[in-house]
Amino acid sequence: MSNRCHVATRKGLFTLERGVAGWSISRANFLGDNCTLVMHDPRSGDLLATLNHGHFGIKVHRSRDGGASWTEVATPKYPEKPADYVPKVPVEGKPADWSLKLIWALVPGGPDEPGVIWCGTLPGGLFKSTDGGDSWELNRPLWDDPRREEWFGGGADHPGIHSICVDPRDSKHVSIGISCGGVWSTRDGGLRWQLGGRGMRAEFMPPERQYEPNIQDAHQLVQCRANPDALWVQHHNGIFKSTDAAGSWSEIENVKPSAFGFAVAVHPHDPNTAWFVPAVKDEKRIAADGRVVVNRTRDGGQSFDTLSRGLPQDHAYDLVFRHSLDIDENGDRLAFGSTTGSLWISENSGDSWQTLSSNLPPVYAVRFEKPA
Amino acid sequence: MPTVRFTQNIQRHVVCPTREVAGATIRDVLDSYFRLHEQARGYVLDDQSKLRHHMAIFIDGMQIQDRDELRDPVPPGAVVDLIQALSGG
């Protein structure tokens, strides 16, 4: 099981390690800088961290010694926008910028394609590196699909790809989640893309458009390693699951205290077991009743255990962003961090939790190191 | 030749020494500078080679007008300052 975990925050990147005395923060990198995402590559051991310097733009750094030293590598760059470019489907009256706003997903390719890294961004471009991050190329088939131009921002000014799932059986089968653009998949490594998402419901749209797959606000998409046809989505207005590789989805209803949230984790060996961190829905975005809880289903969403042992239950208003919950390769250890700088870890599948910090900067991403 | 100076705030990310470079427009001046310090380009210009939203450029103390095409003229001997705009927080 994993003994290292990386935590990206508004003011730096922190490494957690489990020693004989338990978990502790062993290292801090990029202190003071806005570290928005971190990725561990199980094939090479590389770490990639993304920084948003605000004035100076988005940057990517890589460590090849476990986080002891870092080097800036290439940043995904959108191609030059043709001077005569006219959007085919202008949404909200203006075309998308062809300029990087945020790196929102970094995921290693399959074990048979060392060096491949997929990168999702705002304003909606999917990039791929084949050299471990030394260079990036925009996936043109997806970017040039006129349906991509229908995507729109959910909570942000631009649409973004936040989830990328590489099928462990077939590295060319990749599924992505977009806010707001639903769920898309490719079976040929990105040459052709299919829009999935049948059955998803967007409460925030006019009634006649609520079931359109391309306007769904998937907050996060995750895939079961042992059964990759099984996927879960924490959506803007609910929880959905698919058992046919993201083609169709069924809504999980009557979830207490809330079906709203951002983060979801699925058990690597059991597609029916998944965890969520519920919050009061969109107009408030705080923990329900001032209690931080984790919802766990073990029967595919028919029922949920609301887990609270070790979590604050009195005037706690922590919100957990979409990349801030992770599970290790065995399904025993989970960790999550909050916008108010709390960090919790469980070693018994969520039955109980230990507070590792209540004083971190706002947490944007939590990632265990996992074997290939 | 114009002299280009960078804000101290950028120096901890990428070294940008003050130096004289050739150019009659701000675009020409920046291109000359970035040819010598390529890594700095992405810290100042965005994907479409426009000035980043929260960066500012002054020519002899006057802020440039053309943030997209960077066609503002630069007199010989001018001092060009690149700083971060306060609007960026």
Estimated share of beta-strand residues of chain B? 15-25%
Pattern of helices and strands of chain B:
EEHHEEE
Largest sheet of chain A: 4 strands, antiparallel
The strand order across the widest sheet of chain A is 3-2-1-28
Outline the low-pLDDT stretches of chain B: none
Q: How far is it from the N-terminal to the C-terminal residue of chain B, by CA?
A: 33 Å
* Radius of gyration of chain B using CA atoms only: 12 Å
Rough outline of chain A: globular
Structural class of chain A: mainly beta
**Inertia-based shape of chain B:** globular
Q: What's the average pLDDT of chain A? A: 95
Number of helices of chain B: 2
Secondary structure layout:
The complex is a heterodimer of chains A (372) and B (89).
Chain A: E1 4-9, E2 12-19, E3 22-29, E4 35-40, E5 47-52, E6 58-63, E7 71-73, E8 102-108, E9 117-122, E10 126-129, E11 137-138, H1 140-143, E12 160-166, E13 174-179, E14 182-186, E15 194-195, E16 218-223, E17 231-235, E18 238-242, E19 250-252, E20 264-266, E21 274-276, E22 294-297, E23 305-307, E24 325-327, E25 334-337, E26 343-346, E27 354-357, E28 363-368
Chain B: E1 3-6, E2 19-20, H1 26-36, H2 41-44, E3 55-59, E4 62-63, E5 79-84
Parallel strand pairs in B: 1-5
Antiparallel strand pairs in B: 1-2, 3-4, 3-5
Quick overview of this protein structure:
The complex is a heterodimer of chains A (372) and B (89). Chain A contains 1 helix and 28 strands.
Outline the structure in words.
The complex is a heterodimer of chains A (372) and B (89). By secondary structure, chain A is mainly β. Chain A has one helix at residues 140-143; strands spanning 4-9, 12-19, 22-29, 35-40, 47-52, 58-63, 71-73, 102-108, 117-122, 126-129, 137-138, 160-166, 174-179, 182-186, 194-195, 218-223, 231-235, 238-242, 250-252, 264-266, 274-276, 294-297, 305-307, 325-327, 334-337, 343-346, 354-357, 363-368. Chain A is built from one helix and 28 strands. In chain A, a hairpin with a 2-residue loop joins strand 1 (4-9) and strand 2. The longest helix of chain A is centred in the middle third of the chain and has 4 residues, at 140-143. Chain A starts with a strand and ends with a strand. With 89 residues, chain B is of the alpha+beta class. Helix content of chain B is 17%, strand content 21%. Chain B has helices at 26-36, 41-44; strands at residues 3-6, 19-20, 55-59, 62-63, 79-84. Chain B has a five-stranded mixed beta sheet, covered by helices on one side. The model of chain B has no long low-confidence stretch (mean pLDDT 95). Chains A and B meet through loops of A and helix 2 of B.
